[in-house]
């Protein structure tokens, strides 16, 4: 039932740029991660037009066709030009894909992910040995699209690409806070956009058991607050990820981090069973009992059930942070340890891991665990995920263990993308031999979830994870931080188009705090702040799983785009303080500090009215003096004037105060401001 | 695996406002829809605190408990104070629910939806005869929350509430553009927030068949581009809606709007079968063949299958817009009509409807259809949904047919909330008798989907539908448009907190168009625009299902908040042009026109670079002269000066040009600006 329209005759859709028209050459590419080799043909470009023909030669799997249609839809959305909605049977077109084979039925760690992409005046050719490679190639194709006054174009390029590391992961902790399936799906989409290939699904925690077991239904009945993934959900996510060239490695934490198991099945406990899901954060004392055969019978059945849902060759058993004081107290456990010549908790956990390994081996699965599982008692086909750091990872490799680096990629440290970006699983100064280096499978970004929920998770993960994705994919010597930030912005926008909410969540949070759609002042104010790290927040504000996450700290985002822009401008000013060339940078900095300082009165009014804003009051008071300090320092520097001792003393006091913990947020501009004050004579 | 934290001892969470502290009385309530009676006790309020105890007395259905927990979570998010995560067995608490019964196993049209809500110094009591009534009461409770400098409070009120109409619906067209399940879920959440109770799911269209049939799988295999709801999806949505007090009425369009049926099963066709899903919009000529028994056998099986998925007492069969020229051409159909004494297409369609009605009656379902099904041949238990208008609806009621009004609630007309708001299913000047008035079940908002997709749908539906929801729920004499707009803003924010994207989608669209996160100028510019109506767009730009929906027109929103604010300010200025009391309104208007006009140069630069912005170029050129005109008119008016004839002529030309169709968008300020120019001497 629609409008009284006369059915319009089908008209040919307008072609925005004729195929033969000369098109402008775009200024610079925004490929991220950077391909292995890119050859750019100067002077011309291929104009994207609405009559584009598409051909899929070679292997025509449903997965490949769906990926191609998704890429075409994104090109359509970006260009505003209709693209084909179905893949015909033509053998060549303006866009031709040649895919040799669909690849393994279950994507493997040795899957060939390479591709070649050529844009010529005649059109686009994408060649890949597998569907996964072609999927990566399509992402590069979408990134090549550039707007010009004459319409959208593709620069004439020849790309030959393959990843540096085989394991390029993102872990999401769905235990401490549950994330709905659609949140995970949009994050999978974003992962695919930057060519990550492992979704590590942290499914169990002291704070929640999130995966349905039909054999042990109490695990979610009693251990999840009703927030869990059904087996159908999990199968759907595995399917969704595979369609995008991403493996799903599930993690079931054992023997520690297991309060939610033990609430449901207290008979597995080493001592006193918890009386409910753990609400507090931090390491808990509870642990599965590694000395009873019933434990292994339970885990055999459980892991067998899970292996029917998760086809990946790897299963993660956690294994970290198990102080397990009960193991030293429970007489039965003590005598078991004596009988088996196990001298300490570490030895008992190694025994446990050996037993679990045997179960997994029978299920044709390889075992992954955190640093703590690393023990000479275990065979060499175990993979160690290092949260303790490069040294720990290297030590494992020296002893012949495969490893995945995670320590420098903890997003809840709220560090800037540039810092994560430079941390390398195999750094230039590595002491590992080439053979040992091969044991480093790659890296994994970790998103722990104490302080996030479905509203804020995206802004904690993106776009910073895109920078890390380049580290995992691109050559070791791709290390230009400024160039990374230049490319990160358009990628961030593309991620938003894919459905990730990292850019819109901040305003949504601010609107809620302001109780108004008019948030100009609060938005400008908020640009001056970012959340403190997990541990700093935890020290300032006692939080638990029950803490609401709708404060100012939750709305603002780590490493906001303004932060790097301020740093760049300050560097330009400091490099040539008296030069006319610095005028634009001076102006940018002055504007920022002027505008930010001007918001304080309006925000102070809001703080009085809204209890959730009150923690930030201390920071609001500090803001104006800091902005004035910055403006004074800029004036002194530009005029090459000397500061008075009083000014310098006052500056020191202000900076010291501003660096102290307060309001659970920190200023985004402390680093450039400190440099500026130091630079004043 | 998380930080090396020593487990912190559980500390009692800070209580923001002690229960006994005197709390400020909030200024005014923002209940929407307005309850039947509200008694406000002045001078005090109940302070919300983190130790709130909750009791659920009477019927303790899982549905009621889940609804209560959802309401508590929202109170927690708003106040920043932890709320209970489980419902204990206490018989009284600070918040006590008394629910007499869970209600019908399938929510019915006669379900008692009333509730009483009392906030006293001792706490909150919510009493309702059914779970559905209590669910509505919880929405009022959440709306009562108010921030004060002393913390969040609930005003002391006594509310006695029940709806005016039994049928308060929202229809979403998922045929022309598919909407993912999570989009529908968040819209169901928003419906519940404003006490709507019918989700009318438009599942089939010429452009797509969106519901899986296991008996006739080709319907979606060939008729959906792979975009459809599985039966599990549909059952899940029905469950989700029921949990929120909302019925789901499915619509299967027949005999017209049926190209997607006929692509899959051409044997049902009256003439030539379509060779694919229809991509063009407007009324199509295809129709099911009402003269073959095979058609009724097919529909019997199909509707039987669907009745197993959709438990609601009503099934919608569409029935509109069936020109069906084949019925006048096909010799077999012509002879059938002669044999059955059916003189025209209308009579043949009435015959068809009678047959379908018999099928539905056997399935214990009642039939709903659009105006066109209205025919004296049909019995009186058929419900007519009127898209043709109040007169058509009234005519039906006069003949004894039940009806639901939709004509004034077509959201794709892009009219302001205030216009929709005043349209009443039973207006004050109705000529219907009280008995006939009872046949008007209520109204339904219609969201047709030619020009929207999952990114833009929310902003087309919300917050305007909230205003209409008040029309369906509240008393006939609740008609204060300004007061409605006052309350619409906080409700709009609450909808965003529930997950609807209507506020964030505009910025997301603008970022994509600007290819930048820095959109201050474009955002200010965009405030001056709103999308034109469906039909005006369709006339300016030939669109089809294949048209990308990522233009400027798609980013901007209908009836943006600034529009009513401008109108209010202009009314204030015009009411007292020379009074000092108008100073703030003058300032607001000047700021708006100054700031808007200042954005033109930056936006013109963007337009050159971004092909998708180019349609709006003509409007950009008009903007600055219009803003200057407004500023001049304000100056003349305030100074009580007379305009020159040249100025007036020029003003007339500018306004006339601005009122012409261009750029698929219109200015938000034409009405106040026209009034202003007319007011100048």
Describe this structure in words.
The structure is a homodimer of 681-residue chains. With 681 residues, the first copy, chain A, is α/β, with parallel strands linked by helices. Chain A folds into three domains: 37-161, Chitobiase, domain 2, CATH 3.30.379.10; 167-484, TIM Barrel (Alpha-Beta Barrel); 504-679, no CATH class. Chain A is built from 25 helices and 19 strands. In chain A, the strands form four sheets. Chain A has an eight-stranded parallel β-sheet with strand order 12-9-8-17-16-15-14-13. In chain A, α11 links the parallel β15 and β16. The longest helix of chain A has 27 residues, at 583-609. The first copy, chain A, is globular. The N and C termini of chain A lie far apart (75 Å). Residues 1-26 of chain A have low confidence and may be disordered.
Task: Note the topology.
The structure is a homodimer of 681-residue chains.
Chain A: E1 37-47, E2 54-58, H1 62-79, E3 95-101, E4 115-120, E5 123-130, H2 131-144, E6 146-148, E7 151-161, E8 167-173, H3 181-193, E9 198-202, E10 204-205, E11 208-209, H4 218-223, H5 231-243, E12 247-251, H6 259-264, H7 293-307, E13 314-316, H8 326-329, H9 331-339, H10 345-362, E14 366-370, E15 383-386, H11 390-398, E16 402-405, H12 417-422, H13 434-437, E17 440-447, H14 457-461, H15 464-473, H16 481-498, H17 504-514, H18 520-526, E18 529-531, H19 534-540, H20 552-555, H21 561-575, H22 583-609, H23 617-638, H24 645-659, E19 665-667, H25 670-679
Parallel strand pairs in A: 2-3, 3-5, 8-9, 8-17, 9-12, 13-14, 14-15, 15-16, 16-17
Antiparallel strand pairs in A: 1-7, 4-5, 4-7, 6-7, 10-11, 18-19
């Amino acid at each position: 039932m629609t409008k009284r329209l006369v059915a319009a005759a089908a008209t040919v859709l307008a072609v925005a740029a004729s195929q033969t028209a000369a098109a402008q050459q775009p200024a610079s590419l925004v490929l991220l991660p950077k391909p292995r080799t890119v050859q750019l043909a100067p002077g011309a470009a291929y104009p994207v037009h609405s009559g584009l023909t598409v051909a899929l030669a070679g292997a025509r799997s449903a997965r490949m066709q769906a990926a191609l249609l998704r890429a075409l839809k994104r090109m359509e959305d970006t260009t505003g030009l209709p693209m084909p909605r179905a893949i015909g049977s033509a053998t060549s077109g303006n866009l031709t894909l040649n895919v040799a084979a669909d690849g393994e039925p279950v994507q493997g760690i040795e899957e060939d992910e390479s591709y070649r992409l050529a844009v010529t005046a005649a059109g686009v050719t994408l060649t890949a040995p597998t569907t996964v490679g072609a999927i990566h190639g399509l992402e590069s194709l979408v990134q090549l699209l550039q707007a010009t006054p004459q319409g959208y174009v593709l620069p004439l390029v020849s790309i030959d690409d393959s990843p540096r590391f085989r394991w390029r992961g993102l872990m999401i902790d769905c235990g401490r806070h549950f994330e709905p399936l659609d949140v995970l799906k949009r994050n999978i989409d974003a992962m695919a956009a930057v060519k990550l290939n492992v979704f590590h699904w942290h499914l169990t925690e002291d704070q929640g058991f999130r995966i349905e077991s039909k054999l042990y239904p109490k695990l979610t009945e009693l251990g999840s607050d009703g927030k869990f993934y059904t087996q159908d959900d999990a199968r759907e996510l595995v399917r969704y990820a595979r369609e995008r060239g991403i493996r799903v490695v599930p993690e079931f934490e054992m023997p520690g981090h297991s309060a939610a198991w033990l609430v449901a099945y207290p008979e597995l406990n080493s001592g006193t069973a918890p009386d409910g899901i753990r609400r507090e954060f931090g390491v808990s004392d509870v642990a599965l009992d590694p000395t009873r055969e019933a434990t292994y019978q339970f885990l055999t059945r459980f892991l067998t059930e899970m292996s029917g849902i998760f086809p990946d060759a790897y299963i993660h058993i956690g294994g970290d942070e198990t102080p397990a004081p009960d193991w030293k107290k429970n007489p039965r456990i003590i005598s078991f340890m004596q009988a088996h010549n196990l001298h300490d908790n570490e030895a008992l956990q190694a025994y446990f891991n050996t037993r679990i390994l045997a179960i997994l081996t029978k299920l044709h699965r390889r075992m992954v665990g955190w640093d703590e599982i690393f023990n000479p008692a275990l065979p060499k086909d175990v993979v160690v995920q290092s949260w303790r750091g490069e040294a720990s990872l290297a030590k494992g490799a020296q002893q012949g263990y495969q490893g995945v680096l995670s320590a420098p990629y903890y997003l809840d440290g709220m560090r800037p993308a540039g810092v994560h970006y430079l941390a390398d699983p195999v750094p230039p100064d590595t002491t590992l031999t080439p053979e040992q280096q091969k044991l480093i499978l790659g890296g994994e970004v970790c998103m722990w979830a104490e302080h996030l929920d479905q509203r804020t998770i995206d802004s904690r993960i993106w776009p910073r994870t895109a920078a890390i994705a380049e580290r995992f994919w691109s050559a070791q010597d791709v290390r230009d931080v400024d160039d990374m930030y230049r490319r990160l912005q358009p990628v961030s926008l593309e991620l938003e188009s894919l459905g990730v909410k990292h850019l819109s969540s901040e305003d949504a949070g601010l609107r809620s705090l302001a109780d108004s759609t008019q948030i100009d002042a609060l938005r400008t104010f908020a640009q001056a702040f970012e959340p403190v790290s997990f541990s700093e927040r935890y020290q300032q504000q006692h939080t638990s799983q029950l803490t609401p996450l709708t404060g100012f700290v939750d709305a603002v985002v780590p490493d906001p785009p303004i932060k790097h822009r301020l740093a760049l401008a300050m560097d330009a000013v400091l490099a040539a303080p008296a030069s006319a060339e610095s005028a634009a940078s001076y102006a940018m900095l002055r504007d920022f500090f002027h505008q930010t300082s001007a918001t304080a009165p309006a925000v102070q009014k809001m703080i009085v009215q809204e209890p959730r804003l009150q923690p930030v009051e201390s920071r609001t008071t500090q803001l104006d003096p800091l902005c004035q300090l910055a403006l004074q320092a800029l004036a002194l520097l530009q005029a090459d004037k000397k500061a008075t001792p009083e000014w310098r003393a006052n500056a020191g006091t202000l900076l010291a105060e501003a660096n102290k913990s307060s309001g659970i947020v920190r200023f985004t501009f402390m680093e450039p401001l400190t440099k500026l004050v130091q630079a004043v004579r």
